[in-house]
Amino acid sequence: MLIVVALGGNALLQRGEPLEADLQHKNVKITAEALANLAREHQLVVCHGNGPQVGLLALQNAAYTKVNSYPLDVLDAESQGMIGYLIQQELGNHLQGKQVVTLLTQIIVDAKDPAFLNPTKPIGPVYAEEQAKELSAKRGWKVAPDGKYFRRVVPSPQPKEIVELQAIQDLLNLGVIVVCGGGGGIPVVRSDNSLSGIEAVIDKDNTAALIAEKINADALLILTDVAAVYENWGKPNERQIKYISPKNLCNMGFANGSMGPKVSAACRFAGTKNKFAAIGRLFEARELLMGKAGTRVDAKYTEIEYY
Question: Is 10 a known active-site residue?
Answer without folding.
Answer: yes
